[in-house]
Amino acid sequence: MKLFELGERTAQVHDVLVTVAELAERDDARAVLLESADDPALLKPYLNRLELVVLRFPIFRDGRGFTQARELREYLRFSGEIRAEGHILPDQAAFLRRCGVDSVVLPKDGNGDPALWEKQLRQFPVAYQRSVLPERSVGPGLRVEEAS
Amino acid sequence: MSIPVGHYQYDRIDRDFLQARIAEFEGQVQRRLDGTLSEDEFKPLRLMNGLYLQLHAYMLRVAIPYGILDSRQLRKLGEIARRYDRDYGHFTTRQNIQFNWIRLEDTPAILRELAEVDMHAIQTSGNCIRNVTADEYAGAAADELVDPRVHAEILRQWSTLHPEFTFLPRKFKIAISGSPNDRVAARFHDIGILARPGEDGAPVFRIFVGGGLGRTPVIGQELFDSVREEHLLATLEAILRVYNAHGRRDNIYKARIKILVQAIGVEAYREAVEAELAQMDLERYRLTPEAVAAIQSRFAVPQLEAPADADAVLAQQRRDDPLFDRWVRSNTHVHRDPGHIIATISLKPAGGIPGDATSAQIARLADLADAYSFGEIRITHLQNVVLGHVRKDRLRDLWMGLAEVGLAEANIGLIGDIVACPGLDYCALANARSIPIAQKLGARFADTALQAEIGALRINISGCINACGHHHAGHIGLLGVDKRGEEFFQLTVGGRAENGAAIGTILGAALPEDETVDAIARLVDCYLGRRESGETFLDTLTRLGHEPFREAAYETV
Ligand code: HEM
Ligand code: SF4
């Protein structure tokens, strides 16, 4: 498994990765796997101990993971690591990052080339809407760029 | 260049963004060619950039945000039609333009040429928020309450490469209007927005969700009556978030928001949206008056000056020339300034292909826009063209200029103003050819005096159940069906997309092409014979019910 970091947070490897259903039984679990149909609100009782939430993309066209990531960051104020795995494309790198995802499990095929991911992160100088990242306005209007 | 009067003026940052998008797309084409992207992976990526594969060739759909462009942009579209297509373009029901005969290799070059005039093909297709449509008379019509273009531009920007909503269950279409007279089919959109002035001067928005056509036509329902401007983006984010999380992804025919709204009910949908809003950091999503003003400042205001006798000059010219008078009657709309008028140019010549324009016509339209309407052109959702601010005393000159290139057809809103999908001539999904029957109907009712006599009557034609020609919303709708390998048409009546939106109901058995044309002629005769004074086709239909029309249509069959 090759990890790629989308932002500043260092990706951590966890030996124990459980499903949402298993969380209640496994006090030792610090990492959980969310399927795209799972409601992130189910993680509420466990947020204090969770260090990693992995979002699984069954296919890159299934965009539920983007909403899950934003809900984790915006509603649940989850401050641990969010990772995307499964069928994802480098073309989605900036979208993932802007929704709060920190790292990805690189696909095993040609889409796993880290250079493609790197390039995509720098593709656009500005964005036209707010995301979960710290941003400043590049006025006039709605445009923003990352503040860091 | 001076600031355009109709649309947002780009700056260097917007242009850099476009260039970055082209570079990204070029990289995607490259990866497809070298095999790192599979066709299944490439398809949604190219669609998001407007590139379709049709029956015979690639088609590129170019975005015309809120349907408005300037003459420089229109000229460029004409050049692209000439250089890369077969010398024509096709204006669509979503105010865009498509080029039907594009080579994949040419697309990056075309996109670069478009970018020279601040145009692109971003989000004209794919399961994302599509190009936003708006009232074709925005900022000009006398009946307007709020000019929707600034908010349409805000929605365009906000939805552009939205990080969360670019891989939705299905396509997502938003329309916005600021007039009490719905000219955007607000209730046939995933989200329809009607703006009106609020108490503090800032507009408030009435929001409908879950409308749409396609195989399951649904009239949108009101989600909120009065959303304040500052909460407009937060509210849209919340609506889309609920849809992205819960819209069906197992069956593309059940994936539109309309199905979700139907399944859970509009009350439950509203509660879900309110639950999102309650958790959202509203400050973060707030649309500030400063942001609105900044975007507004990128639109120039046309200096509407007309001689005091402009109105009188026009009135005299109408008296002197009955042909001109007929055109003015069907093809113009009241402007907010008494010295000006809104002119709609029909792209529906009798026997022609609805919505098509040759590169020569496109170039002439650009010249006429420069001469008569501040260089501004609008595309309508009925596939026509509008010059929004024409001085009344110069209208006749414009009309004569249009006649020189065959664009003076006097049939707007009349039976010749047909909307038809591309059908079997272009589309692999079609059961029937929509264009030839549109041409036959156009020819049958070619006499503009007869069209004026018949009055307001909309015909919409779709070649299959996907309803790209909006047949459900036609006063008379035609749906292509396949009967043992033959092309037949099913007739519906009573649909409408305007105020009082309704879905048409089926009149009877499907008919072959020529018999369909005859049946429509009899429908029209039935109406003409039985209408009471002042009644439109829809009025008479409502008063009498379907039965007399059904009898007339199927009389000899
Ligand atoms: C190659 C095949 C197709 C062609 C040539 C075609 C053509 C068109 C055109 C020209 C428009 C107006 C486009 C715009 O400016 O946004 C349109 C809209 C539309 N298309 Fe298609 N289309 C095709 C396939 C489909 C399919 C597969 C579906 C549905 C499964 C579909 C459903 C619709 C609907 C419902 C609309 C507009 C109505 C609405 O949603 O409000 N089309 N189509
Ligand atoms: S309605 Fe059917 S035939 Fe017509 S363009 Fe759409 S998919 Fe093709």
Automatic annotation (TrEMBL), chain A:
A Pfam family assignment: DUF934
Highest taxon listed in the record's lineage: Bacteria
Name assigned to this protein: DUF934 domain-containing protein
UniProtKB/TrEMBL annotation, chain B:
Every Nitrite/Sulfite reductase ferredoxin-like domain range: 58-117, 353-404
Stated name of the protein: Nitrite/sulfite reductase
Species of provenance: Gluconobacter vitians
Alphabetic keyword roster: 4Fe-4S, Heme, Iron, Iron-sulfur, Metal-binding, Oxidoreductase
Claim: DNA repair is one of the keywords in the record: no
Superkingdom of source: Bacteria
InterPro entries: NIR_SIR_4Fe-4S, NiRdtase/SiRdtase_haem-b_fer, Nit/Sulf_reduc_fer-like_dom_sf, NO2/SO3_Rdtase_4Fe4S_dom, NO2/SO3_Rdtase_4Fe4S_sf
Keyword Chaperone in record: no
Nitrite/sulphite reductase 4Fe-4S domain residues: 125-278, 418-553
